[in-house]
């Protein structure tokens, strides 16, 4: 199983690319942090990311989704973010690396869960706020740099997905995932 990750700044277009990949028959796994935020907000929490257990909740959902996705009969999967993104999120928010996050990063490294090539989706030059995404464009650029630093620190190779039409960005991802495994 080859598992690829899409990462980048909030609002960069990762989910749009993921949806296009899914529409063309690829196996995809959605972003966990947004789901954890939406769930918390549905329960009346205005800012779930301020909860002490937030990072661990994201890690748990990422692991659950990854292990459930293994059952899918496919050779390639594309993930909207990974535990390395959760590491970047924790660093950005100023949280210490929890034992759950550390253990999950150890597991994905030891088991080689994700391909070492990660698709870094570049920002679009703006960041539209949503209920789950309350970040200015300037702060999203800082967050983008933290993502780059986290992935590089853990030894991943970033494949740049430049600004462009969603279909062109999806085609750039497809050209890499369609190559034979190294």
Automatic annotation (TrEMBL):
Q: Which Gene3D superfamilies match?
A: P-loop containing nucleotide triphosphate hydrolases (3.40.50.300)
Mark the transmembrane ranges. Answer: none
* InterPro entries from the UniProt entry: NadR/Ttd14_AAA_dom, P-loop_NTPase
Q: Which SUPFAM superfamilies match?
A: P-loop containing nucleoside triphosphate hydrolases
- Cleaved signal peptide residues: none
- The residues covered by the NadR/Ttd14 AAA domain are 3-169
The superkingdom of the source organism is Bacteria
Write the protein's name.
ATPase
């Amino acid at each position: 199983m080859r598992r690829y990750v899409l990462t980048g700044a909030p609002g960069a277009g990762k989910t749009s690319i993921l949806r296009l990949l899914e529409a063309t028959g690829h196996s995809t796994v959605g972003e966990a942090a947004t789901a954890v935020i939406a769930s918390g907000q549905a329960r009346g929490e205005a800012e779930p990311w301020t909860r002490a257990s937030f990072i661990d909740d994201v890690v748990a959902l990422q692991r659950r989704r990854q292990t459930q996705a293994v059952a899918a009969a496919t050779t390639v999967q594309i993930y909207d973010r990974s535990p390395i993104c959760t590491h970047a999120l924790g660093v950005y928010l100023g949280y210490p690396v929890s034992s759950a996050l550390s253990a999950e990063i150890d597991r994905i490294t030891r088991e080689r869960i994700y391909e070492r090539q990660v698709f870094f989706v570049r920002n679009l030059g703006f960041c539209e706020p949503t209920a789950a995404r309350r970040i200015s464009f300037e702060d999203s650029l800082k967050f983008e740099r933290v993502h780059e630093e986290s992935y590089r620190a853990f030894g991943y190779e970033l494949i740049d997905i430049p600004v462009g039409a969603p279909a062109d960005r999806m085609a750039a991802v497809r050209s890499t995932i369609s190559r034979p495994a190294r």
